[in-house]
Design a protein that fits this description.
The chain is an alpha/beta fold and about 400 residues long. It has 3 domains: about 70 residues, no CATH class; about 120 residues, 3-Layer(aba) Sandwich (Rossmann fold), CATH 3.40.50.10070; about 140 residues, Rossmann fold. Helix content is about 35%, strand content about 20%. It is built from 8 helices and 14 strands. The strands form 2 sheets. Strands 1, 2, 3, 4, 5, 6 and 7 form a 7-stranded mixed beta sheet that branches. Strands 8, 9, 10, 11, 12, 13 and 14 form a 7-stranded mixed beta sheet that branches. α4 crosses α5.
């Protein structure tokens, strides 16, 4: 008997040790897919092995089955078994999803009012399937979310014999500009769902382009300002290319009512636009006005104009931009416009007053302030056309 026991122990050692002492199920670092229920089952079987030698063969067969099925379920993509991450792999970050607000459709005649909200909901559903976009249909009473990237305005246009067409326009609420438009051909009203899907498919590409442009604009704000390089014409080179004469643009001053908008940079951009529309090449003055709210002195203007060979200078001061609410943002503004000649003397000094500017739904204060300054630019260009001719 002792010899038989020694032989059995030697055979057990070759197989990895005594069966009653071996670990039933060892969970290593590379087998994370065996879940807690499997581990509990293995622990139960281990207890059976140690207490009932008769059931050992059946229990071992069950262990083999359990440890084989779990990896197979993992390989097959069973949702009940979480996949084991590869060594060194990191979870992929989901792509940024821009919020696009879809407003209820306007209609060309009252018979289409019934389809206004349903068409907006269908469009939001169709656009929401595009990568990086999450679209939300809003009701007439819903406020436009502050984190919205773009706003889609839709319109149902009736045709002959009950036909209908879908017209879409996309606005950037930061600038108030329309960045994309789409229109479909007319079709029977019972094909409105197909028309909306067709319009959404055509809108996806310009929508992605508008979102990319928005991201580039926002990224540019975080970058340092880079001045253009100085160009030196070498001796013996050909005659210089005719260019627009320069006009110095001084940094604007002023503030919007309530501090809702940093208006000065927007007004400086408006002054540069005025200079360009008058036929000049705007050149930055490089430094703000010494006294806030006061125009540049004639001596300072003359020195800067002479330094760059400009024909004069332009300065704006936003006296006020008053916002209101009439279902959408509205605003009125008063902006002082001062123009200088090449000798630094003031040639024009007036206050431009705008009409009431009405924004669109979802437009922010910055967008409406830009509209105010755009009307100021129209007024100033008409007034300065004879005074500041190139």
């Amino acid at each position: 008997m002792r010899r038989v026991r020694r032989i059995r122990r030697r055979r057990a050692d070759r197989r990895g040790g005594d069966r009653t002492r071996r670990r039933v199920h060892a969970v290593g670092a590379g087998d994370a897919a065996v879940t807690a229920p499997v581990q509990r089952t293995s622990a139960t079987i281990a207890a059976v092995l140690q207490s009932d030698p008769v059931t050992r063969p059946a229990a071992l067969a069950l262990i083999a089955l359990v440890t084989t099925v779990a990896p197979l379920r993992r390989a097959a993509g069973d949702p009940a078994v979480p996949p084991s991450p590869a060594a060194g792999a990191t979870a992929a970050r989901p792509p940024a999803r821009h919020l696009v607000a879809v407003l209820p459709f306007t209609v060309s005649d009252g018979s289409l009012s019934l389809y206004s909200r349903a068409a907006a909901t269908a469009l939001a559903r169709a656009l929401g399937g595009a990568p990086g976009i999450r679209a939300r249909a809003l009701s007439l009473d819903d406020p436009v979310p502050v984190d919205v990237a773009l706003v889609v305005d839709g319109r149902l246009v009736g045709g002959s014999r009950g036909a209908v067409a879908v017209h879409l326009s996309v606005r950037d609420p930061e600038t108030g500009a329309t960045v994309a438009t789409v229109a479909t051909a007319t079709a029977p009203r019972d094909e409105l769902d197909a028309l909306v899907d067709r319009a959404a498919a055509r809108l996806r590409r310009p929508l992605r382009a508008a979102l990319a442009a928005r991201e580039r604009r926002r990224a540019a704000r975080r970058q340092p300002i880079r001045l253009p390089p100085t160009v030196v014409r070498l001796r013996g080179a050909g005659p210089p290319v005719a260019a627009a004469p320069p006009l110095v643009v001084w940094p604007a001053a002023g503030a919007a009512v309530g501090g809702a908008v940093d208006i000065a940079p927007l007004a400086t951009d408006a002054a540069a636009e005025i200079a360009a529309r008058l036929g000049f090449r705007p050149v930055a003055a490089g430094r703000p006005v010494p006294e806030p709210g006061a125009p540049p002195s004639p001596a300072e203007v003359a020195a800067r104009v002479a330094a760059v060979g400009a024909r004069g200078a332009l300065w704006l001061r936003v006296q006020d931009v008053t916002f209101g609410w009439a279902g959408v943002l509205i605003a009125r503004g008063r902006v002082r416009v001062v123009a200088y000649g090449p000798d630094g003397r003031v040639r024009f000094d007036r206050v431009a007053r705008t009409d009431t500017i009405v924004g669109s739904r979802g437009d922010r204060h910055t967008a409406v302030a830009r509209m105010v300054l755009a009307q100021v630019a129209d007024i100033a260009v008409a007034a300065l056309d004879d005074v500041m001719a190139p």
